[in-house]
Amino acid sequence: MFELTDQPIQAHHQAVSATGAQVVFTGIVRDLNDGRTVTSLEYEAMPPVALKEGNAIIEEAKRLFEVQDVRCTHRTGKLQIGDTAVVVTATSAHRQAAFGACQYVIEEVKKRVPIWKRETYADGTIEWVNAVEQSADGIAVLLECLEDFEQWTVIDVRDDDERQSEPIEKVAHLASPSERFDRALLPGNGAKTLLVCASGVRALLLADDLLREGHKDVHALTGGCVTIRLIARKRP
Amino acid sequence: MSKRVRIDYYAYFRDRRGLATEEVETQAGTLADLYKEAAAANGFALPIGSVKAIVGDEFRPMSDPLEEGTTVVFVPPVAGG
Lengths: 236, 81
Fold this sequence. Notes:
The structure holds 2 protein chains of 2 kinds. By secondary structure, chain A is an alpha/beta fold. Chain A contains 6 helices and 13 strands. In chain A, helix 1 runs antiparallel to helix 2. The A-B interface holds A 27, 43-46, 48-49, 52, 74, 85-86, 106, 109-118, 128-135, 165-166, 225 and B 10-12, 15, 36, 45-50, 54, 57, 59, 73, 75-81.
């Protein structure tokens, strides 16, 4: 049974007559996320689909593990630091199955159930967790941070379909997918090259190849859009 | 051909749009096309790969065709637990 509640979560064990083993996972609101101090948060759910998906996960856990009972209750609404956000209880004749089912449910709930978390930070900012904005302006912001940004040649090394769905705007740049990178695009006149991809991995590997081949001043945007987000956040 | 559909917004999208639901006229052929239109119109900055679509309480692939009269929910990245 999966349920949502806007009230403090009651312990499940009172509702289950256990034999053998009962494993309980309790998720508690933490005061730190991604290096920032959290002061409070709010969970929002889309009830019909959240209940349906949550119950599908419970049924999967029952098929995968030999358990008598699996329950998950997730909070909605405003919570303070130290409040219980979620409880998963798995009851079984043996502890291994109970541990397994409990872990399965919490991991899948985090990945699949339409529940969103809006955190308020000590500096007063409010953000939806995991809603990582990929601002095309981010690269413009990054370049402005460099004193000599006119000197840089920016090359987008993502695949064609990625580039079409998330174009880089407002920054003059070239494009050549890393898999078949066109070396003729490298400026070769002392200008610096910045390779950009989604996460930074492809750019980093390609920059390494190019430096080994003897090309000079080739750089990768390490961390991709994560870096851009951090820079954008620090900007006044 | 233009069609009329409803979009329901939750969490990030609702905050950005300033609305929980709206009806739109669209030329979009697929759910992905509709997301791109809505993103361009409202400044949604979540990459399409991180967004899921729900039609009639079911998760549907973004490549699904968009039917006249459908209610679509765009699901921003979830963060339960």
